[in-house]
């Protein structure tokens, strides 16, 4: 007897192929590439997979935040994210024992919105809870610093 999959599950599939540390990828009809810094054996001709991981974090926060804002009935006029990941390369490059993950990731978001302070607090907490990429980072055990700042939309000032 086959188990019926959940109707809410959407598969995300990526295909990659390459040589050396350079890789061409396709996903959902989109093409992109990854490479690495010369110190890691690459030519720096495309973003590193680590940049894509941090980029996924910022963009997934914006997608999730947009869904949450809609649920809360608030308008977000603009999103501005700065994300920094501290990576000790001793495991990746040198083969040292330990965890190859980022030691720490810091998210700084400035959101222009008509949300009240209470609604904004809900926006932040619900986005953090519902964002799949945020949860990947948080559940990996690294130090995760997530600070959002609210800026009132010009129409509400």
Automatic annotation (TrEMBL):
<dbReference type="InterPro" id="IPR036102">
    <property type="entry name" value="OsmC/Ohrsf"/>
</dbReference>
<keyword id="KW-0560">Oxidoreductase</keyword>
<dbReference type="InterPro" id="IPR003718">
    <property type="entry name" value="OsmC/Ohr_fam"/>
</dbReference>
<dbReference type="Pfam" id="PF02566">
    <property type="entry name" value="OsmC"/>
</dbReference>
<keyword id="KW-0575">Peroxidase</keyword>
<dbReference type="InterPro" id="IPR052924">
    <property type="entry name" value="OsmC/Ohr_hydroprdx_reductase"/>
</dbReference>
<dbReference type="GO" id="GO:0004601">
    <property type="term" value="F:peroxidase activity"/>
</dbReference>
<dbReference type="InterPro" id="IPR015946">
    <property type="entry name" value="KH_dom-like_a/b"/>
</dbReference>
<protein>
    <submittedName>
        <fullName>OsmC family protein</fullName>
        <ecNumber>1.11.1.-</ecNumber>
    </submittedName>
</protein>
């Amino acid at each position: 007897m086959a188990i019926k999959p959940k109707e809410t599950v959407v598969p995300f599939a990526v295909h990659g192929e390459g040589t050396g540390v350079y890789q061409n990828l396709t996903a959902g009809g989109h093409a992109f590439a990854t490479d690495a810094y010369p110190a890691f054996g690459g030519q720096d001709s495309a973003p590193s997979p680590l940049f894509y991981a941090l980029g996924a974090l910022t963009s997934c926060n914006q997608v999730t935040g947009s869904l949450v804002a809609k649920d809360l009935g608030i308008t977000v006029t603009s999103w501005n994210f700065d994300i920094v990941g501290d990576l000790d390369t001793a495991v990746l490059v040198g083969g040292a024992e330990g965890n190859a993950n980022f030691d720490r990731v810091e998210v700084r978001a400035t959101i222009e919105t008509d949300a009240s302070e209470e609604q904004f607090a809900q926006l932040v907490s619900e986005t953090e809870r519902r964002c799949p990429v945020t949860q990947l980072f948080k559940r990996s055990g690294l130090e995760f610093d997530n600070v959002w700042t609210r800026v009132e939309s010009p129409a509400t000032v």
